[in-house]
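Weekly sync, protein design subgroup
Attendees: M.S., D.O., the rotation student, P.L. (late)

Item 1: inverse folding check
M.S. brought a backbone from last month's batch and wanted to see whether the design step gives back something sensible before we order anything. D.O. pointed out we never logged the input encoding, so this time it goes straight into the notes. Structure tokens as presented (99 positions):
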């Protein structure tokens, strides 16, 4: 089974965040930016996420993964291009079970 992956990214902040959470399906860029501001993360991480969402060049890229190794490959690709990953852990779960 393949999972759609949303990659929130900004060249201004040189950061990205990946998720396979289906709640983002059909959301506009503005809606995603507003949603990020409501996340309840540790203060330092939340401030980085807020900066990412506020960046004028904030955009969403899409990919597809079948397992957690695919997520690590995506992370490596962006890190190699000079971006910092804001994900604290790279996990792929379905109904709270690892995939």
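Designed sequence read out in the meeting:
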């Amino acid at each position: 089974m393949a999972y759609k992956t949303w990659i929130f990214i900004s060249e201004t902040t040189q950061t990205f965040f990946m998720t396979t959470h289906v709640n983002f399906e059909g959301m506009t860029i503005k809606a995603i930016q507003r949603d990020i501001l409501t996340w309840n993360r540790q203060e330092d991480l939340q401030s980085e996420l807020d900066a990412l969402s506020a960046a004028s060049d904030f955009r969403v890229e899409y990919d597809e993964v079948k397992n957690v190794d695919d997520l690590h490959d995506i992370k490596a690709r962006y890190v190699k291009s000079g971006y910092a990953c804001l994900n604290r852990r790279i996990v792929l779960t379905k109904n709270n079970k690892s995939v």
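Discussion: Strands lie at 3-10, 15-19, 59-65, 84-85, 93-94, 97-98. The two ends are 10 Å apart (CA to CA).
Action: P.L. to compare against the previous round before Friday.
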